[in-house]
Amino acid sequence: MTAVRKAIVGAIVAVVGSVPALADPNIVSRIETYPIEGRDADELRMAIIEASRALGNGAHGAASATFRFTPQLSYLEVREGCVLDRVSVRLDATVTLPEWVSSRGADEATVGAWRRFARYVKAHEARHEAIAAEYRQIMVQELEAIGASSDCPALGREIVAVVADVERMHDQAQVAFDRDERDRSSLLGR
């Protein structure tokens, strides 16, 4: 990378902040928002509940994250059968966050509470993204660990099984994180 490109990337990171997608070209992250209106905590809470139901997040999911893993593979036919030649996995992440479109008429306590809530939700979804990135790397490692198969169709079946196993483990890790967060929040009285 040239010095000029490094400087440009450094400037982007300074402006945008720490974005995992900049560090790994195989991770593409997108943030979407949905509008929330209200002047006090009760109105904001009800607006989030209604919007969350419409988004399919359940009654208490203020935000959501969706992930898609796309293995990109090439293989070689060798004397022993068939073997993976190149392995990469693309992760597409979409995070959906609430956006308070107007705080006009809200008191300072509500504005402060919203800011704390928004920071928490953003950090929570960032942890979901980090979990997905970890499992993207696990998928790469597991695919790279596949040895030679007797033939290419057998290799294909093994690839499908590995991808399904890692996706299942990823889903379980995401559910476990949310469960741990709920347990922690209930201890704090949230």
From TrEMBL:
InterPro entries: DUF922. Residues 1-23 form the signal peptide. Pfam families: DUF922 (PF06037). GO terms for molecular function: peptidase activity. Keywords: Hydrolase, Protease, Signal. GO terms for biological process: proteolysis. The keyword Transport does not apply. This is Putative secreted Zn-dependent protease. It comes from Aureimonas pseudogalii.
